[in-house]
């Protein structure tokens, strides 16, 4: 009995020593790994890089700018379904544990021992809190050291922050494939929906992605993606978060993702406008604020007017270009084998809908069969669909030869214009009633001429529509703001304004007759003529001279009032920064932009007040605070305390500079 007691005492003593040594070892390890842990307090003020979004005046999305597709969503705005899907997939006990799931860790340790030496990646047992610690504060290194640091940080984070805050950080930081960070961006990228519109199947698929977004690609690895999605659906049922009937329906749902989600500017042909807004924000706030600041920009663009402006500009350019005849197909293609794959590799313009690139497959006198460029799936593979159409003789009537013996002749057969292998553009052919003829198309060619258009509210300077060229895909050079061209006779109202502000009236008579200007210094004699060369009206009023755009009267006027005065008015109106003292500049020989000319004409329309053009109404930061507003007018009475008490209505005080006498502005407009 005494021996038994001694033996038990020995075991107790030995156990105590081992326990104390173990405790000391654990304490030492904790101390060792805690020495250089990152500062987790930075999570409190975490501001992730968030994309800047630009909206049109009606709220429609115009553009997005970011280095990472990311939208930050407060946890209160995340639907319960989405939260449950991620908890089911990643950490069902999230709201119960203190940062570490010991059961999961034990399971991972057993699997690690079983797979030791097999070069298989160890299975993780990370809780959501541990993933937050790793994603924000540590690296992706696979080692016990990192796992220990991850666990220590997770326990500290759990003590410092609420569960909702930790979950909010996780749901907004995780990478979910296709360049999308966070659930809000992923929902838009994969399904073109807000998180509130996601179905059970869609939420389950997003929740399946964090472990391996590339391996669960919805097109390249569709079967595996569906399998993992259904696994998450099963976990939702198992945890009692959805009903069995809803789960059965979700499992049967097809995994349909948006094949392409381009810039919203394509919705209303606003690419040039969106790019100009991007440049404006870049100049105001810099690159970091633009691509990471999460700005919300309300642009001045009117989508309906923009569509009309784009259609009008394109129609005018095409009509002018087609009058010169058909220049021939821009390129040829070998149509043997699968022509679709070859055509898919040819760069086409994506912003000139309903035009589509096609290749001529066969021709005859009366028609040509064409094959349209196939699209690409989400994974980049060429679609297997092959769509064809017919170009009839009516579709090539305009295509007169632009050169050669047959120049100017209307084609009598389609084969005279097209041959197999020609890469062309075509759009639907319409009948006399304006209805598209099914299966029939019209030949198109990209115009060599380009142009620009700006539509502005003359009272505020808000640009309602802007077209910078035929196609943004073809050329990003914005001819409305960047192309300096001669304004020609459109400059004359500024000359007449300077004259009428300085003694002339609309009824002042000036002689319309030939004039010679000695330019001196060996430059010879300049003899400006009217557009209707050789026709002169003699004495005429300024009103008629401006109405008929008479060059000789304008030059005489400029001689009398002096080019320095005209240069001063051109600076006031913002047309030119400096105007040389040459009389030819009174006829618009200088160079300026469409935007500057539209701004100048707006000042005639609004009674002579200075207008500052803008493409942006308001900019808000990521917290909704307004940091820029174009309308800077003072509003007296807008902040009336105590509500409505029959006081006078609010007044907007307009302190903009009067650059032109209101009477002169009226007379010029008249």
Automatic annotation (TrEMBL):
Pathway note: Glycan biosynthesis; Cell wall biogenesis; peptidoglycan biosynthesis
Any single GO CC term annotated in Swiss-Prot or TrEMBL for this entry: outer membrane-bounded periplasmic space
Taxonomic path: Bacteria, Pseudomonadati, Pseudomonadota, Alphaproteobacteria, Hyphomicrobiales
Domain Penicillin-binding protein transpeptidase: 451-629
Keyword terms: Antibiotic resistance, Carboxypeptidase, Cell inner membrane, Cell membrane, Cell shape, Cell wall biogenesis/degradation, Glycosyltransferase, Hydrolase, Membrane, Multifunctional enzyme, Peptidoglycan synthesis, Protease, Signal-anchor, Transferase, Transmembrane, Transmembrane helix
Predominant place of localization: membrane
Protein name: Penicillin-binding protein 1A
Provenance organism: Bradyrhizobium retamae
Domain Penicillin-binding protein OB-like: 326-449
N-terminal signal peptide: none
InterPro entries per UniProt: Beta-lactam/transpept-like, Glyco_trans_51, Glycosyltr_51/Transpeptidase, Lysozyme-like_dom_sf, NA-bd_OB-fold, PBP_transglycosylase, PCB_OB, PCN-bd_Tpept
């Amino acid at each position: 009995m005494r021996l038994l007691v001694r033996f038990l005492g020995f075991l107790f003593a030995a156990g105590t020593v081992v326990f104390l040594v173990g405790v000391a070892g654990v304490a030492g390890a904790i101390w060792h790994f805690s020495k250089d842990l990152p500062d987790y307090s930075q999570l409190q003020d975490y501001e992730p890089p968030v994309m800047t979004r630009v909206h049109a005046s009606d709220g429609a999305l115009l553009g997005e700018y970011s280095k990472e597709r990311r939208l930050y969503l407060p946890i209160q705005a995340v639907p319960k379904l989405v939260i449950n899907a991620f908890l089911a997939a990643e950490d069902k006990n999230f709201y119960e544990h203190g940062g570490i799931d010991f059961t999961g860790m034990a399971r991972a340790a057993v699997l690690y021992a079983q797979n030791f030496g097999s070069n298989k990646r160890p299975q993780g047992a990370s809780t959501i809190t541990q993933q937050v610690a790793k994603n924000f504060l540590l690296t992706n290194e696979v080692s016990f050291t990192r796992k220990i640091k991850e666990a220590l940080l997770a326990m500290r984070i759990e003590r410092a922050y609420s569960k909702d805050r930790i979950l909010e950080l996780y749901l907004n930081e995780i990478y979910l494939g296709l360049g999308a960070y966070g659930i809000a961006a992923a929902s838009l990228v994969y399904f073109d929906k807000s998180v509130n519109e996601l179905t059970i199947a869609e939420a389950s698929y997003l929740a399946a992605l964090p472990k391996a977004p590339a391996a669960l690609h919805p097109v390249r690895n569709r079967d595996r993606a569906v399998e993992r999605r259904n696994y998450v659906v099963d976990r939702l049922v198992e945890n009692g978060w959805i009903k069995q009937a809803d789960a059965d329906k979700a499992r049967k749902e097809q995994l349909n993702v948006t094949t392409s989600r381009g810039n919203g500017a394509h919705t209303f042909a606003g690419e040039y406008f969106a790019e100009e807004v991007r440049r404006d924000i870049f100049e105001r706030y810099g690159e970091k604020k633009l691509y990471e600041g999460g700005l919300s920009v309300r642009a001045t663009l009117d989508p309906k007017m923009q569509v009309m402006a784009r259609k009008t500009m394109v129609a005018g350019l095409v009509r002018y270009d087609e009058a010169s005849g058909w220049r021939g197909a821009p390129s040829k293609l070998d149509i043997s084998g699968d022509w679709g794959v070859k055509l898919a590799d040819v760069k086409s313009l994506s912003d000139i809908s309903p035009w589509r690139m096609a290749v001529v497959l066969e021709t005859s006198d009366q028609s040509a069969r064409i094959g349209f460029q196939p699209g690409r799936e989400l994974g980049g593979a060429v679609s297997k669909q092959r769509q064809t159409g017919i170009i009839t003789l009516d579709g090539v009537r305009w295509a007169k030869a632009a050169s050669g013996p047959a120049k100017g002749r209307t084609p009598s057969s389609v084969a005279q214009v097209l041959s197999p292998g020609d890469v062309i553009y075509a759009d639907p052919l319409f009948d006399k009633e304006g209805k598209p003829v099914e299966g029939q198309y019209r030949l198109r060619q990209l115009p060599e001429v380009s142009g620009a258009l700006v539509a502005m509210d003359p009272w505020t300077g808000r640009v309602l529509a802007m077209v910078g060229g035929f196609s943004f895909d073809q050329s990003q050079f914005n001819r409305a703001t960047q192309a300096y061209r001669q304004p020609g006779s459109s400059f004359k109202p500024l000359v007449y304004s300077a004259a009428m502000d300085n003694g002339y009236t609309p009824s002042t008579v000036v002689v319309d007759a030939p004039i010679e200007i000695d330019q001196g210094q060996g430059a010879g004699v300049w003899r400006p003529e009217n557009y209707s060369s050789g026709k002169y009206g003699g004495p005429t009023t300024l009103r008629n001279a401006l109405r008929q755009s008479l060059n000789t009267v304008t030059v005489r006027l400029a001689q009398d009032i002096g080019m320095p005065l005209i240069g001063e008015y051109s600076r006031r109106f913002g047309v030119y920064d400096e105007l040389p003292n040459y009389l030819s500049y009174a006829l618009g020989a200088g160079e300026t932009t469409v935007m500057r000319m539209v701004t100048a004409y707006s000042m005639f329309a609004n009674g002579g007040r200075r207008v500052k053009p803008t493409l942006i109404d308001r900019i808000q930061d990521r917290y909704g605070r307004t940091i820029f507003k174009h309308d800077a007018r003072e509003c007296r009475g807008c902040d009336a305390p105590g509500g409505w008490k029959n006081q006078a209505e609010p007044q907007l005080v307009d302190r903009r500079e009067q650059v032109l006498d209101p009477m002169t502005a009226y007379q010029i407009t008249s």
